[in-house]
């Protein structure tokens, strides 16, 4: 939603200012210039990336127009679920989670938190480490290193579409210059036409440079920044889960372990201690 609002603001400012200055908006409508710039950018994108990167970039584009799913309510559900898991371990032993971990989508405990269960990658992260903990005594420091490696891998994979879109944005001004040069070449080979037509042809050529720069800094470039913010946000939930599990492995009570995880969260989405405590209390009543 904010992407569309931003695009509207960019267009209104640039084209509105041009019109207010006395310019004719029809002069900026140059589909052939757009074809050269857009086609060249698309071709360079295909040349410069393998199929995995292309698919990752295409898959990431729809997420740019959606709001964040990482809300305070989601984190409250995560921490409440972790509290319930660790409380069950403390009361009934680690092996009491075996059925839940082996079939999480059939687990009554997990299914009380549908917002967490539908996140396939997060559920896989939680269940994998609970499964490792089921195998016996493990060194928390080794598990922490393994978690860090997995989170880094998630981060590296998320950077692929960011890198691809940033490269497209970086190349658009150059492709705009290419389109402008092509227009100038066409103008030079038409020196016999009346000066009024020559002026129009030069104006059309300059539109290529204008479009390349506008598309780069007003449309494509900001998308890579937004994707980077979304990636950082998506990594935070794994970091909170990691801290809770490690605190449990080091012998802390479920209440303290969950509090460690709460402290990892960004202040904009972090529930207060009272909010989390109240939610857990109400969950017990249900």
Automatic annotation (TrEMBL):
The MotA/TolQ/ExbB proton channel domain is annotated at 125-238
Motility protein A N-terminal domain residues are 4-93
Subcellular location, in the record's words? Answer: Cell inner membrane
Q: What is this protein called?
A: Chemotaxis protein MotA
The entry's family comment says: Belongs to the MotA family.
The membrane spanning regions, by residue number, are 6-29, 171-189, 201-220
Instruction: List, alphabetically, the InterPro entries matched.
Output: Flag_MotA_CS, Flagellar_motor_stator_MotA, MotA-like, MotA_ExbB_proton_chnl, MotA_N
Topology versus the membrane? Multi-pass membrane protein
The record's keywords, sorted A to Z, are: Cell inner membrane, Cell membrane, Chemotaxis, Flagellar rotation, Hydrogen ion transport, Ion transport, Membrane, Transmembrane, Transmembrane helix, Transport
GO cellular component, as recorded: plasma membrane
GO aspect biological process, one term: proton transmembrane transport
